[in-house]
Each structure stands twice: as structure tokens, then as C-alpha cells.
Fold:
Amino acid sequence: MTGSGTILNAVVLPMTAESHIIRGGYVTVRDGVITGMGAGAPARIEPGWLIDAHDTVLMPGLVNAHTHLYQVLLRAIWEDIPLFPWLRKIYGAAQALLPEHFYAGTLLGCLESLKGGVTTICEHNFLNPNPDCAPETVRALRESGVRSVFARTIMDTGEIVPNCVKEKPDAAFKLVESIVGGARKTFSETQTRKLSFMTGPNTPPINASPELLRQLRAFADSNAIGISAHVAESASVLDYVRQHCSAPGVVAYLRQFDIPGDNTIFAHSVHISLEEIQLLKQTGTSVSHNPVSNMMLGDGVAPVREMLAEGVNVALGTDGAASNHSQDMFETMKAASLLQKVHHRDPGVIDPYSVLKMATVGGARALGLSDLCGTIEEGKRADLILVDIHAPHIQPVNHLFSQLVHCAKSTDVSTAIVDGCLLMKNREMLFLDEDRIVAAAQASNGHLLRRIEEKGI
Ligand SMILES: [Zn+2]
Structure:
């Protein structure tokens, strides 16, 4: 589904250059594509929706480069637990999770995301106790209207991974191929790339064998899909790779298997060396920085300053709600900014425009979508949000970029458009039934928690 329309009188932030701000600007959209933009009035009003944005900020929709949406059902369930024991719970939940939980949770996660200005989501999928879990997640992503990348990853080993989600590489590859191939045949969204795919090892090396890693790059390339993985999230993973794999770090280890690459996104990358940052740069690998999750699990602080200084592409992600506990990318932007400042004890270490770029341009590039979204430019798909800057917690505006990062809240997003389709106007969802989705998720949450308790997870 695409759409057409015109936005007038906006403060347009194309995110193509810091100095590029169009006040009193317009953007026109036809069949999902941006057809015009500039100051003043357009030569032609496109048929479809017409929005007078009267000094509201019009910017590219935010890109959440790493999350697990079903985990909204597990918000605040397992708190105050370090990564390994926490993962034992998260993986253990596979014994209780049913396809219907993935559907209900993913739809609620999409609703929360769209209402917070997120128009593109990378859903990193790693628990598949049942072959219907992944398709049900994809169904919810499609129904929501959000642009999505579904990263169907694989676990084939690991002491803390229940057998029901351990897969033999060959069998897993067949399942991934069937999801990707089936979608490419069936869904028109795959042609417009509203839905695209990745694969990957989930959390190498703790749940990915050398045998799996040896085959993954060729498998991804043969299916023309990228790779997503959790990398060096905690010091415990670094200890593991040093003890069990004789490698100096996780990135260095993955390099042996040709996993880094320009269609690869490494979530976290907290415990990586300067040499590994060079490896990321040389291979064109992107990183999803997930500051709130890192703080919640006490993982540490990712070397964002160093990665940006070296020219590594850094995106932003919330991670799943079991370690965040929201899907709020405005909160994530503020956390990304403040965490670097306090870590380096230097308030000038990162500037707000760079943070906004990570949440837009950087995310689109990390997911292989730079030609479609991440900026407002003629010819790109219209993934746009309007942010109301009139609220008392934002006014008066002295530094627009800083105030979008440090003052604005996700609830200030009034309008969300994906592929030209107006999905939310004045905070009202036009296609999704908000009450029904929340009620269904509440029921699903109760059902899932009962199953978790019954199984002693
Ligand atoms: Zn994650």
C-alpha cells in the first residue's frame, strides 16, 4: 500500500546536511515517492492527504536498527540480572512461547514504534521453537504498515540454549530460504522493499558453532540477504571468545568466517578493541548502538566516539523491551548522547545532529535501505514524521537539533507516513485498531506468563 499527498508550511529537516533546514517548506508525495520539496508553496498539490504542518518539524521517520518486538510481552519481567543469566531466561522462554504470542507482541511493538515516530524496524528474530513463529512475526510486521527488515537468525549450539530452539544449520537454512522465497513470491512489499530480510548467527560464539559460521556468509550471499548478529554485548562474551575460541575479540573471531561486510549489522559492539573498529571500517560493517539496553543490563559503554571518528556507520536501536523496557527512539537518542558525555566526561564529545543522523541516515544505511529512506530527498520513498515542537517542554526553540534529541518525546510525534501512506494523523492511528491490539497483547501476556510459570522458567 502506498499513498500520495502534500505537506505544507513545515520546518523541513531533510537530514542531508546540518545547515539544510527549510522553514515554511513543503514536501509532495506521489505513489509513495517524494516528488518535490522546497520553500514556499509547491507548483502542484498532489492528490491524496493534505497536511498544513504550520511550523511543525518534518523529518525522516526514525529507524530502529535492532529490536525483538515480541518482547513487549516480557517488559520488566526479569530485572536486575546480568547478561548470561538473563539470556538463560530469555532463551528459556522459548519453551513457553507460541506463534500467537509473537503475533500479538509484534503488533503491539509496531504500534508503539509508529506512535513514537519509528517508520523502519529491524526485527532480529532468534527464537523459533515452532516453524510458525517467524511467519507470524512477519504477518504482524506487514499488517502494521511499518517498513521492516526481518533478520531470521540461527542458533545451533550453546549450553544455555534450550534444545527446542537449537537448529541444525542445513535445516535452518532451508527454513530461512522458505520464508524469504515465499515472501518474495507472495508479497508486493518485497518489490518495494517495504519488507526485506537478513539472516545471521544470533550471539556468536556462545550459540553459533564454527560449522554454522563457516557456512553463513555463502548462504546469505546466495540469497542476496544481509547479516545481523549480537556482537560483544557484555564482558562475559569477550571472556568466552578468548577462552574458547583463542581469538582476541568477537569481531576478530567473526572476521575468520567473513561475517563482517557492508550488508552486515552488529548489534551492541560494546567490548571491541580499536583494532576491531578498524576491521569494521575496512569491511563496511555497521553497528547498532543500543544504549538503553546496555545500561539496563549493565553491559558497559560502546565506543561510539571512536567508531564515529573512524567513519564506522553507527545506527541506533532500542533492543527488545525485555532489556529496555520501551521501544522509544527519542529516549534512545537522548540516552546515546548523554551516555557518551558522561563516559568521556566531556559534554562536547557528541553533537545532537550526529545523534539524529544515527537514528535516520545511519539506520537506513545499516539496513541496506539508503536508496529508499533515512533522508528526505526527491526520488526516495516517503517515510516521514511530523514532530510538534510547540509543547512547553520544547519551547522556546534555540537549538533545533539539540532540542529534538534532548527535549522532544516520542509523544510529540503527531503524524507518521510510510511509503507515502498516512498511518497516523494527530496521534490517531488510521488503520490499526489501537484498543484491540493492546487488549490482545494483554491477554497474550497473561497467557505467556502462566506458561512461563508452569514450566518453571
Ligand atoms: Zn538484541
